[in-house]
């Protein structure tokens, strides 16, 4: 069956006919923001029906959440897994499980979602931004070392776009007593040096938000081998209450970040499809990469030997010296052809957002920034050369498990045509 975005022979011939000024075909591509790009189906609705029929929608008494947690623990090879309400809640639970003191520093990346940064502030700790590799957009052992101080208590490593950060060398470089947390929201089944990402640190955080490898609309997961860390994370998402333990009490300040049986039902059905979805992403992205091999000024992401990428989205590097106008010009021209893309991925480094720039936290207090050393909140551009270089050159192409080979071919052809047109001026 022909994919819906495939250009037929006569249409392609008309576009390429000499002397003809024909508008390019506007592609219709699957989107992870609706059913066209998601693997949702009867499997999810059957599980949802069972939950509704049971009348038990709370995770504390249902069966779907227990099943989900056991399956995620098995999937990640960890002893413990915890389901919660969002990816941000997962990061918050992980940071809270470290039981940091106010003013402690957590080294992290400036190229990430605010949901991975706000929890650090809510726990009274100071996010300290490390620069990133200019070609991968991710922190390295060297950039983390440059950001660490004697106040550093933890490091958060984010794996971007389904490509692994060099988390093995980062883990090996950390002093004893410095915790490593992995943000794997975009990196289900991604491998680094032959190991699953999420197995290098004390805890790994995942997201099931609308556009992730598996989706429940919103949702999060924490996996860990550390018994004390896992227990504290679980108690944290339950308002500090240790369900099922003897003599329970609200042990510490915490929130309600519980998931629901409805979310877990969908997540269980989605887990059944994860491997097939990842394989589809890998095969179509490989085809896309082959189609870009000879396109000047476009660099495909580097995947180190021994690593396996699972492609949440595809970040291309655009050389503005070769492609006039760089990523923004390419994005504008691609949009006219029906291909969405995001120049810069995020429009500015996280430290340029008002919460950091103006230290807008709790009222006018600026807390916990009032506990920070001057170096911890020094966001001088010269300290982040890799960050600015990466954001200036990256163009992120959406991808999902519904892409067919024809979609990959069509998007590659669109990128090639746009680059050629921009080169002609």
Number of strands: 13
Biggest β-sheet: count, sense, barrel? 7 strands, mixed
Give average pLDDT, whole number.
94
Shape: globular
Task: Indicate the topology.
Layout: H1 9-16, H2 42-54, H3 64-76, E1 80-84, H4 87-97, E2 105-108, H5 118-122, E3 126-129, H6 141-147, E4 152-158, H7 167-173, E5 179-183, E6 191-192, E7 195-196, E8 203-207, E9 220-224, H8 227-237, H9 261-271, H10 274-292, E10 298-299, E11 313-318, H11 326-336, E12 342-343, H12 354-357, H13 385-393, E13 394-398, H14 405-424
Parallel strand pairs: 2-3, 2-4, 4-5, 5-8
Antiparallel strand pairs: 1-9, 6-7, 8-9, 10-11, 11-13, 12-13
Helix pairs in contact: 2-9, 3-9, 4-8, 6-7, 10-14, 11-14
Structure characteristics:
alpha/beta; seven-stranded mixed sheet
What does this protein structure show overall?
- The chain is of the alpha/beta class.
- 35% of the residues lie in helices and 13% in strands.
- It has a 7-stranded mixed beta sheet, sandwiched between helices. Strands 10-11-13-12 form a 4-stranded antiparallel beta sheet.
- The chain is globular, with a radius of gyration of 23 Å.
- The two termini are 38 Å apart.
- Residues 1-21 have low confidence and may be disordered.
Outline of the structure:
This protein has 425 residues and is α/β, with parallel strands linked by helices.
């Amino acid at each position: 069956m022909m994919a819906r975005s495939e250009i037929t022979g006569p249409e392609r011939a008309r576009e390429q006919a000499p002397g003809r000024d024909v508008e390019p075909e506007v592609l219709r591509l699957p989107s992870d923001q609706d059913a066209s790009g998601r693997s949702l189906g009867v499997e999810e609705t059957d599980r949802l029906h069972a939950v509704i029929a049971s009348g038990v929608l709370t995770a504390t008494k249902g069966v779907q959440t227990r099943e989900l947690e056991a399956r995620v623990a098995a999937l990640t090879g960890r002893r413990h897994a915890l389901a919660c309400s969002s990816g941000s809640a997962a990061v918050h639970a992980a940071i809270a499980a470290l039981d940091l003191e106010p003013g402690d520093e957590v080294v992290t990346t400036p190229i990430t979602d605010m949901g991975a940064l706000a929890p650090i502030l809510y726990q009274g700790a100071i996010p300290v931004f490390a620069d990133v590799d200019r070609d991968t957009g991710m922190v390295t052992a060297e950039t983390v070392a440059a950001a660490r101080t004697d106040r550093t208590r933890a490091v958060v490593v984010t794996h971007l776009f389904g490509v692994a950060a060099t988390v093995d060398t980062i883990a090996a470089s950390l002093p004893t007593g410095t915790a490593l947390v992995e943000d794997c929201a975009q990196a289900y089944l991604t491998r680094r040096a032959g190991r699953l990402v999420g197995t290098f640190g004390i805890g790994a955080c995942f997201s099931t938000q609308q556009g992730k490898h598996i989706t429940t609309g919103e949702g999060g997961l924490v996996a860990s081998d550390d018994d004390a860390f896992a227990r504290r994370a679980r108690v944290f998402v339950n308002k500090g209450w240790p369900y099922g333990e003897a003599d329970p009490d609200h042990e510490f300040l915490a929130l309600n970040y519980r998931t629901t049986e409805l979310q877990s039902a969908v997540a269980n059905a989605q887990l059944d499809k994860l491997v097939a979805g990842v394989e589809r992403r890998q095969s179509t992205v490989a085809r896309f990469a082959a189609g870009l091999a000879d396109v000047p000024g476009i660099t495909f992401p580097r995947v180190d030997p021994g690593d396996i990428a699972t492609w949440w989205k595809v970040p291309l590097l655009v050389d503005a010296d070769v492609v006039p106008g760089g990523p923004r010009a390419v994005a504008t021209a691609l949009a006219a052809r029906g291909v969405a893309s995001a120049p810069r991925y995020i429009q500015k480094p996280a430290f340029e957002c008002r919460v950091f720039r103006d230290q807008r936290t709790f009222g006018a207090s600026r807390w916990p920034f009032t506990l920070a050393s001057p170096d911890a909140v020094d966001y001088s551009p010269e300290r982040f050369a890799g960050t600015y270089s990466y954001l200036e050159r990256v163009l992120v192409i959406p991808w999902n498990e519904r892409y067919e080979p024809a979609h990959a071919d069509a998007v590659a052809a669109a990128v090639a045509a746009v680059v050629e047109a921009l080169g002609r001026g």
